[in-house]
């Protein structure tokens, strides 16, 4: 892991990015002292908004799966945007685009959800090859959006490993204007450099790493999800943003506002102290 990157604050690292969404995210993290992204995988609009209102003060980013909302109406997006302004967080639609370029641009910009019009950040699989990146960029860049590539996954038996992960990182390197980082389980700088590649990255290459698969007291679920702690993810693996879902909002159909807010605060605090410890550790090494 690069001490050069990990010894720098999130605010300082904003200077490494030209992409507007990446800069805004890093500055939001610094301002709110939060590297917590809350994944709000609930299926009814009011529940969705209630969870976001409760966790908003502690999160730098709210992650959505907008296609699981059963009573979706376009006005939900306006209400989500109002909460984003109220609590100063950014929005990440976890759409995992994976189709040919033309279809991906339509999925990103059209249909019921019009994702590009409101999601500051979205993500894509590399399985269809590199053209998905310029395709999504043709819609997103002019709106100031950023893209994360799925380089690894947290689920047991994931095929996104080895040469697949390396090829994904090489694709990202060729599109630094739009790709701001990865969904991954560890840092990705330097990955894929041994294979033939025209791109020689700068010594201080900086990609954001956003990491799902976190809970404090549980190691997995019954459907293959695997969990680590904020300390393992941020301090030991060098990841930048912790993505936490059920560890915060639980399993109930109804929200307990008090407990949801206090769990969000607990994860924010755990993620931020792991980051502060990391800064200290790598500052003494660099
Ligand atoms: P939870 O913390 O409740 O397990 O939720 C994790 C969230 O992160 C889910 O929305 C899931 O779609 C997403 N996710 C993941 O768990 N692992 C990955 O590798 C990539 C993901 O986007």
TrEMBL record:
Keyword Lipid metabolism carried by entry: no
This enzyme's EC code(s): 4.1.1.23
Chain positions recorded as substrate binding sites: 41, 63, 154, 225, 245-246
Pathway named in the protein's UniProt entry: Pyrimidine metabolism; UMP biosynthesis via de novo pathway; UMP from orotate: step 2/2
InterPro entries noted in UniProt: Aldolase_TIM, OMPdecase, OMPdecase_AS, OMPdeCOase_dom, RibuloseP-bd_barrel
Active site: 94, 96, 99
SMART domains noted in UniProt: OMPdecase
Catalysis: reaction(s): orotidine 5'-phosphate + H(+) = UMP + CO2
UniProtKB keywords: Decarboxylase, Lyase, Pyrimidine biosynthesis
BP terms from Gene Ontology: 'de novo' pyrimidine nucleobase biosynthetic process; 'de novo' UMP biosynthetic process
One GO molecular-function entry: orotidine-5'-phosphate decarboxylase activity
Regions annotated as coiled coil: none
EC category: lyase
Orotidine 5'-phosphate decarboxylase domain: residues covered: 35-261
Family from the record: Belongs to the OMP decarboxylase family.
Protein name in UniProt: Orotidine 5'-phosphate decarboxylase
Organism: Schizopora paradoxa
Taxonomic classification: Eukaryota, Fungi, Dikarya, Basidiomycota, Agaricomycotina
